[in-house]
Design brief:
Elements lengths: L3 H16 L5 E6 L13 E8 L5 E8 L10 E5 L7 H7 L4 E3 L10 E3 L9 E5 L9 E2 L6 E3 H18 L8 E6 L3 H15 L10 E7 L5 H14 L5 H10 L12 H14 L16 H10 L3 H11 L7 H10 L2 H6 L18 E3 L6 H7 L5 E7 L7 H10 L3 E11 L2 E11 L2 E8 L11 H12 L5
Parallel strand pairs: 4-7, 4-10, 9-12, 10-11, 11-13, 13-16
Antiparallel strand pairs: 1-2, 2-3, 3-7, 3-8, 5-6, 14-15, 15-16
Length: about 475
Amino acid sequence: MINAMGWRWWCVIQVLLLLGPFMASSHSIIRNLPGFSGDLPFKLESGYIGVGQEEEVQLFYLFVESQRNPSKDPILLWFVGGPGCSALSAFLFENGPVTIDRNSSGILPTLVLNPYAWTQVLNVMYIDLPVGTGFSYSQTQQGYYSNDTLWIENTYDFLQKWFIDHPEFVSNPFYIGGGSYSALPTVPLVKKVYEVGNKAGSSPLINIKGFVLASPFTDAFLDMNSRVAYAHQMSLISDELYESIKASCNGDYVNRIPNNTKCVSDYEAYSRLIRYININQILEPVCINTPDLKDRILLEDSSSEGILQSLLKVSNFWCRGYDHIRVNQWANNEDVRNALHIREGTKGEFLRCNKSLSYETNLQSVVDYHRDLTKTNLQCLVYCADLDLAIPHVGTQAWIKSLNLKIDDPWRAWFVDGQVAGYTQIYKNHDYFLTYVGVKGAGHVAQSYKPKEVLQMIERWFSYALI
């Protein structure tokens, strides 16, 4: 007589035996990273998994075991926005176990431990998605064509194979998360994983429990349209202009009608007023990013270190985007590529964000997917930054309100070190819970701006404690 757990493992073994000969996957344990002094005090795995019908698409990933209790702690698959931004961006600047020392100089940036790493309490998985991002590649030219739907299918294929290859993690609670654009494909992916795992007679390999969304791109119209209202809330535009543009455009600032001259002129006035505002964090300076300056710098010194030093010389202030040059500098180092076990000849220059992808955005809204998920027993965490104009929290709160969920815990402050870190509200529908959190003083994808506060929020939410 085989009990439920025994039956589950039997199914895993049978699938492994059937698929094993056909799986184009490989992984390695990394004990040292160039730029970091000594052995890594955490377990880091890198590898590739082939996806698609012929496994022509090879997805590169990093997996960091929890530094607390990897056999019991939840697994979080974390996506970076974009599309086209590498997982190394999150690994080094959002929630990974190490970060680049901003004060380091030279050819190879220095890595230091991240005191606010989520890997202190979670197993975290990072994937370079979609294909062409980071170190992921295709064995055929056709394989480089991708879209939101393929993102979902490729990730689901990846997860099935990864769990077959790592049966010791099958019983861990599993969560999917992402910030900015990546939230769009994340929600349908969650629905697919949940529905397949709950089909009658199935033996799920993925023990999904919920999902986490940071400054989530959710609805193309709603998110972009909310920028005008947010700009008015934050006193970036006048009351008079706001009332005029709201009336002349009838509240629709995305689908402006060309022959509506008043709407067009009002929108141009709004655009001029926010032109020199950093939309990711409205209080931070706008980074120098003009084409003529870039061309001049590239003529002088085309290396990442040269570009960075030139930017610092011509700028009177530090810009957050300068950190991203360090990612390219680190990842293009030959010793780093060898340490990460990057397959030779598969990728040329590494770009933190590859903006030349052959990628189609074929999902415009996932609000209906959210609505479907409210009928499940999953947990959802949505957090936004109050200084984010890229995806304003007012748009996020609007689509959450449209789900018509019951308020389980009304709007209140949450605290870190005795200080207000933001505001939160919890919604529910039977066994489904959605926790909304605003992070005070943060910018787009809050952990880059308020890492301590966001780590405490993450710890509390994953331990089912009140934020």
